[in-house]
Amino acid sequence: MTATFVVRAADPGDAAELKRLGDAVAAEPEGWLATQQGWRSVGDERRYLRAIRRYPHAAVFVAEAEDGSIVGRLSIARDQHPASRHVADLGLMVAQSHRRQGIGRALLAAAADWAREHDIAKLELHVFPYNEAAIALYERFGFVREGYRTKHYRQGDELVDAILMAYEL
After folding, report:
1. Is 59 in contact with 48 (CB distance < 8 Å)?
2. N-term to C-term CA, the chain
């Protein structure tokens, strides 16, 4: 089954749907996100999305399904250090029910377009080494492995590794 969806800039009105998506992905036993405590509150997400609209160095994109549900989220933020302002960091999540249907790729393409418009030359992200499907998606898109971060994230009582991947525009 192929999903029908639209990629667009996130709006503060998406906060409740983004909270639902974040909580669902965080609760998956595979531990895809760096947090298992769930997503920020609806109010905090709404405030974040309002602030991001006024901040030229970051953006949030969503994939909205035909029924109005948010099935994907991508955040992008430019590094603020003067020596690395040409680099932006990404975070991506897709609802389990909508994976492998082109949503991740479409969100990555939106991020690449945004980056080009904002004079960013390099996108970076972290991915857990066991998330083979995500690694394959990023590599198909053109990301390359640049490094390995040992014990970089805490998941419960455990410290887990991360692969640093990058995409040059």
Report:
1. no
2. 31
| Helices 15-27, 42-54: crossing angle, 10 deg rounding | 120
Q: Which domains does the chain have, with CATH numbers?
A: 5-121 (3.40.630.30)
Report if pTM > 0.90.
yes
Question: How many residues are listed for the chain in this entry?
Answer: 169
Dihedral (C-alpha) 45, 158, 145, 140: value to the nearest 10 degrees? -60
Whole-angstrom distance, CA of residue 169 vs CA of residue 158: 35
CB atoms within 10 A of CB 47: 14
The whole-angstrom separation of Cα 166 and Cα 138 is 9
pLDDT given at position 36 = 57
Structure tokens at 15: 């906060």
